[in-house]
UniProtKB/TrEMBL annotation:
InterPro entries found in the cross-reference section: Sterol_Uptake_Regulator (IPR053157), Zn2-C6_fun-type_DNA-bd_sf (IPR036864), Zn2Cys6_DnaBD (IPR001138)
Pfam families: Zn_clus
Span of domain Zn(2)-C6 fungal-type: 12-42
Lineage per the UniProt record: Eukaryota, Fungi, Dikarya, Ascomycota, Pezizomycotina
Chain positions covered by the region annotation Disordered: 64-126
Name by which UniProt lists this protein: Zn(2)-C6 fungal-type domain-containing protein
Organism: Sporothrix eucalyptigena
Length: 424
């Protein structure tokens, strides 16, 4: 099949040229960069444009500098979750909720350059379907995306995904994207190739979803599946990204939390329809119990330190206590899994429970909130056998120690003791 011809964009922005995409040359920001909220620069002006996350129509954007992550749609170097008055503004949804009023549909689909890694990797990405897409489709499973699901729910979820992805291409492309992300871990020798495919497929999925006029009964199941898979994909990228300093890591994590919170908006709006759909068993299984009492004592020392610190305002102390409460629930689940639930389920959704005030403390890099994250690092370490987590817990805890310095060593005694001696 011959590549469809088009007028060359000789004056396009730097980002579109680097990604081999047709640029519409709009100033100050082209349509492609507007859609995925990238920094848009033109060689003649070197004028940059950034879009605050709270007004963004696309999910989190994480700063990355390594070649493997440079083209990710999760690339935004400006931490703008706070307003000019330093007031925290939580995201309403992973893609500005159910409203499309601020969405700019992508005017030209991302084009993947031909890979030079052999015949198996070759293929014109402008073709509707190619061998690479088939490989990714056959590889996809809800067990890969959500390993905490049991076999019955995985089988059910796979059936629903296949049915809905055929009707809603944005879901299909995100499934292919997360499948490519998994293959990048399974095949280190082809890591950059699969990661590049993951990024480009995800970018197209987001553009397609943003172009959807509304979320209604006809596409609510596909929209919730898309949002959930995209959220997990985002967390995977955040935990795997070691570029930049610890400030960058924390900012990326906060933005992933905002994305998690946004999924609740999509789900809440569509909840009646979801309960009448084939997703009902999964939705009921995945709905966490916020009011359950804690039973363990893993976070007792953290609670004590939060109560004693004089630097926090009462509202901030309460935010840290709430975050700690759900950490203890997660530890309870790991040490004594509830019937029919995964021991590690809450590890992946802890961000949903975080108060906005706690997210603001993280965003401002308050040491007390950073220290709370050390307990979350221990939870991640307990899930280190999952491909989505790996050594993220150790990395996070060591980074927290280096960031806080020796004067905060007493806050970190328990987390490091668990890494040394194991969780009891």
């Amino acid at each position: 099949m011959h590549r469809r011809g088009h007028r060359k964009s000789r004056n396009g922005c730097i980002e579109c040229k680097r990604r081999h995409m047709k640029c519409d040359e709009s100033r100050p920001k082209c349509a492609n960069c507007t859609t995925v909220h990238r920094q848009c620069q033109y060689a003649d002006s070197q004028v940059s444009s950034r879009v605050p996350y709270a007004a963004s129509a696309t999910p989190i954007h994480a700063a990355n500098t390594s070649p493997a992550y440079t083209t990710s749609p999760f690339t935004e170097t400006s931490g703008t979750a706070r307003s000019a008055e330093d007031g925290f503004t939580p995201a309403l949804s992973p893609v500005s909720g159910l409203s499309r009023s601020h969405t700019t549909p992508q005017t030209s689909a991302p084009q993947t350059p031909r890979a030079a890694t052999g015949a198996h990797d070759a293929g014109d990405q402008d073709e509707p379907v190619n061998v690479m897409h088939a490989e990714l489709a056959f590889h996809f499973s809800m067990a890969t995306t959500s390993p905490e699901l049991d076999a019955k729910l995985v089988e059910m979820g796979n059936r629903v995904v296949v049915r809905e992805a055929i009707k809603s291409p944005f879901l299909l492309y995100e499934c292919l994207a997360v499948s490519a992300r998994h293959l990048s871990i399974l095949h280190p020798g082809r890591y950059e190739f699969f990661l590049r495919q993951s990024v480009q497929l995800q970018t197209k999925a987001i553009a397609m979803f943003n172009a959807t006029e509304s979320v209604d009964e006809s596409n609510c199941v596909a929209s919730v599946l898309f949002s959930s898979i995209l959220n997990r994909h985002a967390l995977i990228d955040v935990l795997a990204n070691r570029d930049g300093d610890f400030f960058s890591f924390v900012d990326r994590f906060v933005q992933s939390v905002l994305l998690q919170k946004g999924i609740r908006v999509v789900s809440k709006e569509a909840w009646p329809q979801l309960l009448e759909s084939d997703l009902r068993p999964i939705m009921k299984w995945a709905t966490p119990d916020r009011d359950i009492a804690t039973v363990g004592h893993h976070c007792d020392e953290l609670r004590r330190l939060i109560s004693l610190t004089p630097a926090l305002e009462p509202v901030d102390k309460e935010a840290c206590r709430r975050a700690t409460h759900f950490l203890q629930l997660a530890f309870d689940s790991v040490t004594n899994p509830p019937p029919g639930k995964s021991a590690h389920q809450i590890v992946y959704i802890w961000g949903i429970f975080l108060p906005d005030e706690f997210c603001a403390l993280l965003k401002s890099h308050r040491p007390e909130a950073i220290a709370v994250m050390a307990w979350y690092a221990v939870l991640l370490h307990q899930s280190r056998d999952n491909w989505q987590v790996g050594d993220a817990g150790v990395f996070m805890l060591n980074s927290i120690r280096d960031f806080l310095g020796p004067e905060w060593a007493h806050w970190l005694e328990w987390p490091f003791s668990v890494l040394r001696d194991g969780l009891h």
